[in-house]
Task: structure prediction
Amino acid sequence: MTTGPTLAVVAREAGVSVPTASKVVNGREDVAPETRRRVTEALNRLGYVRRPRFDQIKPPRLVDLVVPSLNHSRSGAVLHGVEEAAHEAGLDLVVSAAPPRVRGGRARRGWPDRLAARGSAGVLFDRTEPTASHLALLAHRRIPYVMIDPVAEPPPGVVSVGAADWQGGVTATEHLTALGHERVAVVCGPRRTPCSGARVAGYRSALASAGLPVRAEYLRDGGFDESTAQRRTRELLDLPEPPTAVFVCSDRMALGVYRAVLERGLRIPYDISVVGFDDLPESRWASPALTTVRQPLAEMAATALRLLVRMVDGQRPEGTRTELSTRLVERASTAPPPVPAR
Result:
């Protein structure tokens, strides 16, 4: 590896001592003009590059990203969006898996202290729910934060970024009713989760617009996980009049719906249609490929990072909630309802 000349080489070339050459490099005034000239010429001739002193090296600006799990393709999409935006802003990224809590939901008070100690400029919370004490500690240390797709209604004044979930629910349900489905069920996440509640509200609105009733037995909720969705789908298929289509509030849950349908020997989309929400890689790998509502996770994450940068720089966003549009991605899991046997 080629390196530039050392200060000792420069001093020897100029015919001076190393301390004298160092004085010239550091702009000291106690050097004779002729000596300064010789040292300067030697510096230029040899191409000497001044090394920054250790105490002059500025640490990189850091931001923290807290995600519910690293073992999930959704987190990968969020990380991709944040990383690109952070690179553009000249920021380095620290990623933590899961909200920093202990058993019983109590906050680890040391976490914000460690965050401040490493000089983090701000925090992004992706689908994690920091405790009130966490937020109070961040406010006390004047560390700004932004929530991405929050799992609960953010406190007043907290900046968040999400998708147009209500419109996504409308779009998914309208797609099914346009195919001729009248018995449309929904399998959603926890009702208290803002995104899940908005998607179900969109489902209700689309059914009303189509002149179809919202049947209570067709509304099934649980967690955003495959096993719960599989159980809820079994319940739907056990009804005297099971649905011919299901809107599922996440792609991950849709995989549980697929398993429940397969257990019964039914075929998607010939016996039952399924629409998901997210457009994760799993939706393309499923068989048949899943029709889903795409929420722009990478774009949401990048938008959150840019808002955080503005807050770090002392600016305040005009509003507290930013929503990005969703769109339907049609694949192979939806079709007109089966024709009843005569």
About this structure: The two ends are 82 Å apart (CA to CA). The first strand starts at residue 62 and ends at 67. The chain has a mean pLDDT of 88. Residues 204 and 214 are 6 Å apart (CA to CA).
